[in-house]
Amino acid sequence: MKDIGFVCSGDGAQLQCAEDYRDYLDATLYLRDLRDGDLDDFKAIVVPDFSNQDLLRAHGAKFDAYLARGGFLIVFEPNRMDTWLTTAQVQWFARETEDWKWWMKPGGRMEAYQPEPLHPMAQAIPLADMCWHFFGAFRLPAGAAPILNLDDDEGCLIYDQTLPDGGRLIASTVDPHTHHGRRFMPATTRFLDRFYPWLKREAASRGA
What we know:
It contains six helices and ten strands; from the N terminus they run E-H-E-E-H-H-E-E-E-H-E-E-E-E-H-H. It is of the alpha/beta class.
């Protein structure tokens, strides 16, 4: 079994990310051409930010089946997984970054923090590399680990390893692929530079 599959809608930023992180990705899967069983060849599947919403809804049952069979699904926003994923119930709320230009101001901060800084994912990706802006927030499912929370403790990046049959879900309301692929917002490049090596290790740890 391969480690990581990257599901691409054909967006230019996604294609650029697939090229930039090809050393960590085992294959790029085109969402429009996704067939039953295609996801099962991979220990982890990444759905990057700003994927085609109509196609995600059309193929949602495939992601549901993958997760229900013990797959490891990673979804970045704004992909509104609550409209096409039912195996994991993650409630989404509309939220906006309070100040979209906070990073241009001395001492500025995005209204987020790492509630469990000793979690392996938080240790792999420091807070400064998780913050630029976000698209909405999640209610933390029971048993899920909060990796990045908004100041009001709604979730911005969560890791749920408690799903039935060994399924795992990372859900995030940040959009690193779009910014990195378009070469805008250096924190997103730092995020992906740390995220993909961590994910490769995490996926490989699942065994064959």
